[in-house]
Amino acid sequence: EIGQQTVLRVKNSSGATINKGKLVYITGGVGNNPLINTASWDSDANSANTLGMVMANISHNDFGYVILEGVLADLNTDPATFTAGQLVYLSSSGDYTATAPVAPKHSVRLGEVVRAHATVGSIFVRIDK
Question: In this predicted model, what pLDDT tens digit does every residue of 63-86 receive, in sequence order?
C-alpha cells in the first residue's frame, strides 16, 4: 500500500481511545501535530473540519495516524448494510454510514466501499465536505 495512501500523524486529545475506522476532525495543535477528536454529523463545528479515518486505535494523549486518502482495510462493511462501490457518509460519534444524512444533519461524504465484508471490508477514503 506504500504510495497509495496519504496519511497524517496526529495526537488524540479526546479524553478516550479513538478506535480504528473512526472519523476525526482537528481541534487544535501541539507542535506540528494536529490534535483530534471524533467527528459527527450533529453540528457544523464537528463535521466541517472532518480530517480522515483513524488507521489504528489511538489511546488518549498518544500519537497515531489518520488516513486522508487511500484504502483502509479490515473494517466492518457488512454486506447486509454496504455494497462495493457504495458511497459512505459521516454519521454520529465518528461512525460511518451508508445512508446520506438529511438536514439538519451535516453531510460529509467519506468515500466508497471497496470490499463489503463484516470483518475484512475496506473503504477508499476521500473526504468531500
Answer: 999 999 999 999 999 999 999 999
